[in-house]
Structure formats: structure tokens, C-alpha cells
Amino acid sequence: MFILYRYLAKAIALPTLAVTAVALALFSTTRFIRLLERAVENGIGSEVFTVLLLNMPTYLAEVLPLGLYLGVILGIGKLYSENEITAMISSGVPNRVLYIGVLVPAAVTTLILWAIMLWLAPLSSSKADEMWRILAAQTSYDLIQTGEFNDIDKNGKILYVEGQSDQGDLSGLFFGDPARMQFIWSNSATLIQNQDDKARYFRFNQGIQFIGVPGSGSNNENGNDNNNSNSSRSTFESQSIQISSPQPQGKPNKAHLMTNAELLAQDTRWNITELIYRLLFPLIALVLAILGLAFARTKPRQGRFTMVLPAIIAYSVYTVMLSGSIRPVYRSQAPYFTAMWWVHLLFLALAGLIILWPQLTFRLRRTR
Description:
Layout: H1 2-42, H2 47-54, H3 56-81, H4 84-90, H5 95-137, E1 149-151, E2 158-164, E3 170-177, E4 182-193, E5 200-211, E6 232-244, H6 260-265, H7 269-280, H8 284-296, H9 308-330, H10 341-367
Antiparallel strand pairs: 1-2, 2-3, 3-4, 4-5, 5-6
Subunit structure: Component of the lipopolysaccharide transport and assembly complex. The LptBFG transporter is composed of two ATP-binding proteins (LptB) and two transmembrane proteins (LptF and LptG).
Keywords: Cell inner membrane, Cell membrane, Membrane, Transmembrane, Transmembrane helix, Transport
Region (Disordered): 213-252
């Protein structure tokens, strides 16, 4: 029997790994594009790859159940289409061998999901969030290169710097804001931050400001305050220019970044629901394995992929119902006991009905 169990496990494992790898690549590519868009807005460079890698455990937890599901359908479906399951049953091998051969990989997958969701995903996601906040808190000021024109925000403002001290003070500056047609030449500048709204400003010292289309104004001999209808030119001792918008007040919910102990310590509705989600979601692997076994059964003259489309539809409905059952609990619109478990039981019953349907119809025909 051990040889059969190993054979079944191998038949399931190979397509599971292949499907999981492809799904993870597609899923992480989609998330990477979103991260890249945010990185461009915040002036973040190659560190975005580190953030992506730290989020990989979370992505894996989302695609691994699908990989197992399709792995069971493709692996066991191949055995059905090649009459290997029929040969096993004809040789006196009981059906429970097939069920155990499917449930063992499902149990291992469930344990992996619990390890990811209860420990690895919160740990890595919290580090990714911390790293992202540190990087996002930096403006392009922190990445300024002397002797080059630097983009300092996503609105097109540019800054040219001749020198930068070890303390971060800048010297020999040219600042341009094409949107406002504002241009500043300054001897020195420093970065300041408003402690109330966290907005950042450049404070330029001892410089000249020009507003309007360059070349449209005229200068007097002293070069001071001579304006026409299109432009103005002035000198200043000190002037501040905002380069980043105030940060929004309030802190978004970070329950998915907390450890289990932190969720229990802060006994809020959202935290308890997050803990329930971490405990109940991994059971999807067991249910999908049995459901996959039900969809894997094909007749000899049917193709291996006959039931893949109905299986994908069932998976989509399953995941949508799981999400729909937990979302009202997060929002305090439903009690805790309505979260997820009944959806698992519903689709477990559906899988059992599909598996037992040929026997039920056979008995009904015999009674007639």
C-alpha cells in the first residue's frame, strides 16, 4: 500500500508544484506592477524588489490552495483517463486508498498554510511594511545627486545642486517648477519639515526668484523688482517651497501585520476576526482536495481537461463565498460564528455529493 500512496502523492505533487509556480509568478507580477507604480511616485529604487520578496509568503498562501486543487484534478484525472484507477479498483484496492492518497498531501498543504498565515506571513509582511514606510518617508531629497538635474516630486519639480555637505545642506542651487513657471537661483538651501502635518519644504537662502516665461521680463540696473504683465523677478533672503503634500492623518488598520499574541492582546473586533481568518482559511486545502478528487473522475473516452472549467467555476464561487462570509464580521455586521466554517462544510458536502452521485443513481435504477 505504501507504494500506491507514494505513487498517488507523486501524481499530485508534480502538477501542484507546476501550477503553483505559474500562479505565483502571475500573481506576483501583477502585485509588482502596482508596487512599481507606487515606487515611481515615491522615488523608490531597487528596494522595491526586497519589498516584493518579503510579501512572497502572503502571495504563496493565496495561490497554494489553487495549485493543490488543480494538481489533484490534473494528476488524478490523468490516472482516470489512462485507466490506472480502474485497474487499481479491479485489483481489489479499496477506494479509501485513493482518498487517503489525496488527503495526505492536502493535510501537508493545510499545515504549510497554517505555518504561513499564523507565523511567516505576519512576520514578513510587517517587515515589508516597515521598510516601505521608511522608503516612502524619504523624498527625492535623500537621493539628490550633485551636478545633475534631479526630479524631486511626481509633479515635475526639478533641482540642480552644485554641492552637498555631510550635514545635508545644499549649495549652488537652481530650482524649477514648470507647472507654476517658477524658477529660483539660490546660494544655499536646507530641508525642513512641518511637525504638525509632516509636509516638507525647501528653505532657500539668499537667492533670486523668477516667475513667468524666461526671457519675457526686463531688468533694471540693480536687478530688483522690475515686473511686466507676464513675469516678475525678485531677490530674497529666505523663501520656503513645499515639495511634498501633508501626510494623511490617522493610521490604517494593521491587523494583518500583527502577530497572534498582539491580536489577542488588543482585543478588538477587527483583530479577533483576523485571527479567526488565519485559523479557518487553511482548511480550504482539505476541502479543495476532496472537491478536486470529485472533478478529477472522468470516463475513459472523456478528455483529461473535461471538468477543469466547471472546477474553476466552483473554485471561484467558493472563494467569493469565503470572502463574503468573513467581510461582514470584520465590519461588525455579523457575529463571529458566521465566518467561513459553513462555507467549508457546504462545499465539502458538494464534493461528497459529486463523488457519491454515481452510486446513488445506480441504486435508484436498481430499485426501479
